[in-house]
Amino acid sequence: MMMNTTPRESSSGKGRRLRTTIAVSAAAVLVASMVAAGALVRATAVPAEAVDAASAALETRMQSLVDAGYPAALASITQPDGETYDAAVGMADLATGTPPPVDGEVRIASNTKMFVATIVLQLVDEGRIDLDAPIDTYLPGLIAGDGIDGARITVRQLLQHTSGLPEYADQIAADAFAAQKRYISPRDMLEIALTRPAVFEPGARWEYSNTNYLVLGLLIEAVTDRALAQQIDERIAAPLGLEHTYFPSPGEWMLRGEHPVGYHAQTPGDLRDISEMDTSFAWAAGAMVSTPRELNTFMSALVGGELLSDTALALMQTTVPAGDELWPDGAYGLGLQSWHLSCGGLAWGHGGDIPGTQTRNAVGPDGAAVTIAVTALPWAVVSPDDHEALLEQYRIVVDALDATLCAS
Fold first, then answer.
1. Whole-angstrom Cα distance, residue 129 to residue 224?
2. Which pLDDT score is estimated for 5?
3. What is the pLDDT of residues 383-394, one digit of tens each?
4. DSSP letters along 289-324, please?
């Protein structure tokens, strides 16, 4: 189902789920020879030699991801001065060999959390939400269960994954294809989560749980008396001119714009199109669609202070340790995560996985923004039982992000 930003022990005790993984059960081996031509364009005019160097480096990195088994790789670099380069490499459709569209629409999964957190902090700026108020203040009596008390869980703890709320996503989409075109309401998903006991006392530690953002979506709707999708559009997408960034409507299975096929696997070798999907199961934790370039625009605006007050942005960037095998020095703020680049300096972003798409994205210390999207999860490329291979399949995308930010 949806994105989990921390590893968890597997049932066998061997290996752990990796940052921003989806709780789905199947994977397949992708035929390594499925590599196709790529495309790269730039958004504004720059000297030819600079274009050639940037284009070659970006396309080479994206081609390495296709060579590693991902059907297609899309990327965008947005420089601080606005220069933008977009790459699209591999096959949009393995059946036809069609090249992927440049800056095509993709499902951005847990990157949705950055949008949700931004709206919550806008409401804090407006004096309509208190970060340290119990969630019961806004959703009285709703958050309750075994060791779970909404009077003891604050809005800040929900944003930062320190609430102790149990995960719901692994139950909802254990079989991604079974859930592909099934609608499930946020309240039903919350009910499933609350059948489980609390994972720890509120504030005791950090552990990623999509349930936190399920609750935050309900909070936004309760405080604004408006649908979450409307708030995302009116507060973020429309002001920033993001024409391909949206929260799908209930029952909206198809992507609205040009897009590559997203692939998933039920059994090894059975790579199947999962582009049409009812992402209600991800809702406020990961249902959104965007493009690499538009996700860069959003992240740049957020980190650049265009969407929040200086005070609210500082709160968002106040972190707790959240490291794991993939991001040993990782830290998590309020819907925003950070890690140190290999070349020095701190990157801010998120990332996300959903069946058919993996995205890794961040803004570097110089203000350059990079988004990379590949059109399958690692579990559809290597066996989920091979922990080292799975970790490496995640790491190559993270390394490509790091290298691109360091070179930008």
1. 10
2. 35
3. 888 999 999 999
4. EE-HHHHHHHHHHHHTTSSS-HHHHHHHT--EE---
Active site residues: 110
User: Which phi and psi angles does 171 have, rounded to 5°?
Assistant: -80, -35
Give the dihedral of Cα atoms 88, 92, 94, 95; nearest 10 deg.
Answer: -140
**Chain segment 289-336, per-residue pLDDT in tens:** 999 999 999 999 999 999 999 999 999 999 999 998 888 999 999 999
What is the secondary structure of 175-237 as a DSSP string? SHHHHTT----HHHHHHHHTTSPPSS-TTS-----HHHHHHHHHHHHHHHSS-HHHHHIIIII
323, 351, 325: which is closest to 336 by C-alpha? Answer: 351
Count of CB atoms within 10 A of residue 42's CB? 15
pTM: 0.89
Please name the residue ranges forming H helices in 19-111: 48-67
Instruction: Tell me the mean pLDDT in the region 273-287.
Output: 96
Q: Name the one residue in this structure whose structure tokens are 């972003």.
A: 349
Residue percentage of the chain with pLDDT more than 90: 77
- CA-CA distance, 205 to 165, in Å (whole number)? 12
**DSSP β-ladder status, 346-349 and 352-354:** unpaired
391 CB neighbour count, 10 Å cutoff: 17
Nearest-angstrom CA–CA distance, 276 and 290: 15
Two structure tokens written together for 69: 């088994």
**Rounded Cα–Cα distance for residues 365 and 191 (Å):** 41
Say if residue 14's pLDDT is above 60: no
Joined tokens for residue 394: 């995640």
Q: Which of 361, 402, 354 is nearest to 23 (CA)?
A: 354
